[in-house]
Amino acid sequence: DEDKMLIIKLQCDKCNFVKNDIIPMTARTDPGLSKLKITEESDLESKIYRSPLAKIEIPELELIVEPGPSAEFYFTNVEGVLLRFEKAVYTYINSLEQNDPEKGEIKSILHDLKKAIKGDFPFNLKIEDPGGGSYIIPVNKEKFSFSKLEIHNDD
Predict the structure, then answer these.
(1) Could you give the strand order of the β-sheet that contains 74-77, starting from the edge strand earlier in sequence?
(2) Angle at alpha carbon of residue 97, lines to 90 and 116, rounded to 5°
(3) Phi/psi class of residue 107: alpha, beta or left (left: φ > 0; alpha: ψ in -120 to 50)?
(4) Rounded distance, CA 60 to CA 122, Å?
(5) What is the dihedral angle through the alpha carbons of 8, 12, 18, 22, rounded to the nearest 10 degrees?
(6) Residues 6+ apart with CB under 8 A from 74
(7) How far is CA 86 from CA 3, 40, 63, 93, 97, in A?
(8) Residue 40, SS3?
(9) The whole model's pTM is what?
(10) What three-state secondary structure class fits 44?
(11) Per-residue pLDDT reduced to its tens digit, 18-27
(12) What's the mean pLDDT in 109-130?
């Protein structure tokens, strides 16, 4: 594997605050939309590099991660993205009241998400990054596409 990364660990000796960061040295720099079609378990091994400016979406599961002010760069694979979503969905469903009508819909999404983690639910993973830096290294290149985003300045 020819991926090169810079791993940074910052630690304050006074307050013990720790910040870890991973910076890919082989990153795509073009703003764009990366798409990967997941149809079998081996596709879950495709590598994902997400910059702090990127939005990740799985339309079939109605799941979206928007970039935020404290978003960090992370490196994982498709399965890792699904596991992050699963943790977030569990946190959300546990915050709802017992009789909340939304719980049924969330349980349905969670059911499909568990199938996706096993490779038994086909879906599309999209990464939209207006700043560039995010990319996908697919197991099967035929299932991957990238299109440049046109960035318009309001000057």
Answers:
(1) 74-77, 47-50, 135-137
(2) 25
(3) alpha
(4) 8
(5) -10
(6) 22, 49, 50
(7) 27, 19, 10, 11, 19
(8) coil
(9) 0.81
(10) helix
(11) 877 666 666 5
(12) 96
Sign of CA dihedral 130, 134, 138, 141: positive
Burial code of 118-140, b = ≥16 C-beta within 10 A, e = fewer? ebebebebbbbbbebbbbbbbbe
Phi, psi (deg, nearest 5) at residue 43: -65, -25
- Per the structure block, which two tokens stand in for 148? 């440049």
Nearest CA to 61 out of 104, 125, 119, 127 is that of 125
Using CA atoms, how far apart are residues 53 and 134, in angstroms rounded to an integer? 9
Q: What is the mean pLDDT of residues 2-28?
A: 74
Non-local CB neighbours of 38 within 8 Å, separated by 6+ positions: 44, 46, 78, 116, 119, 122, 123, 124, 125, 143
137, amino acid identity: I
Beta bridge partners of 8: 21
